[in-house]
Amino acid sequence: MAPRQRIEVSPEAALLEEQVERINRFPDQNPNPVLRMTEEGVLLYANVASAPIVRALGVSVGDRLPEGVLGDLWRAAADPSAPAVEIVSDHRTYAVLCVPVSEFGFFNLYGTDVTAEKVVARFPDQNPNPVFRATEDGRLLYANAASAAVVRALGVSVGEPLSADTFERIRRLADGASAEAFEVRTDDARTFILTPVRIPEFGFINVYGTDITAARELEKAHRENERLLLNILPEPIARRLREGERVIADRFEDVTLLFADIVGFTQMSSGLSAAELVEILNRVFSAFDGLVGRYGLEKIKTIGDAYMVVGGLPEHIEDHTARVADMALELRNEIARISSGAGSEIRFRVGMNVGPVVAGVIGVTKFIYDVWGDTVNTASRMEAHGVPDRIHVTHAVYERLRDRYTFEWRGIIDVKGKGPMETYFLLGRTEPLPRPAGVRSAASSAGT
Question: Which of 194, 305, 339, 360 could serve as 262's disulfide partner, Cβ 3.0–4.6 Å?
Answer without folding.
Answer: 305
